[in-house]
Write a structure and sequence with these properties.
By secondary structure, the protein is α+β, with helices and mostly antiparallel strands. It has 2 helices and 7 strands. Strand 5 and strand 6 form a beta hairpin. The longest helix is centred in the last third of the chain and has 30 residues.
Length: about 140
């Protein structure tokens, strides 16, 4: 199963990072990769949310519905988005590194008959967007302290 992954160390306690990550209605203030399209609908395990992503500046946003599969505060948030022949699982794993630092791992795993084609087509831009989001999360959380 093809996947993309990036990670960032945030100089803030895990609870601070988790709080920012879960407040998707505030993503517009720091996140230029993922956007919240279902304002005031919090993440709840088993519930659906509508999000969109913009891989690169200037790209048109791609809107999608996702179902939250794992919500394990303050360690893991994961959702799955499905389209014909394509499935994407997005996971944020937070790890307390001690000394007020948190490692955030962001992974997208793809499956389905079109997954290899789609991943080959978007890999570079997708990974660049994921890394940009990690940097933006780090800056926002660290400045909010």
């Amino acid at each position: 199963m093809p996947s993309l992954q990036t990670e960032v160390i945030v100089n803030a306690p895990i609870e601070s990072v988790w709080r920012v990550l879960l407040r998707k209605d505030d993503w517009m203030y720091w996140n230029t990769y993922l956007y919240d399209c279902s304002f005031r609908v919090p993440f709840r395990e088993g519930e659906s949310v509508v999000l969109s992503l913009r891989r690169m500046d200037g790209d048109d946003p791609v809107e999608f519905a996702a179902k939250v599969r794992i919500l394990q505060p303050p360690f893991c948030l994961s959702w799955v988005a499905v389209a014909v022949g394509f499935r994407c699982r997005v996971t944020f794993d937070l790890e307390d590194m001690g000394m007020g630092c948190t490692k955030v791992r962001f992974q997208e795993s793809f499956s389905g008959m079109f997954s290899r084609f789609v991943v080959r087509w978007v890999r570079g831009d997708e990974l660049a967007g994921m890394r940009r989001m990690g940097r933006e999360l780090k800056v926002f959380v660290e400045r909010s302290r």
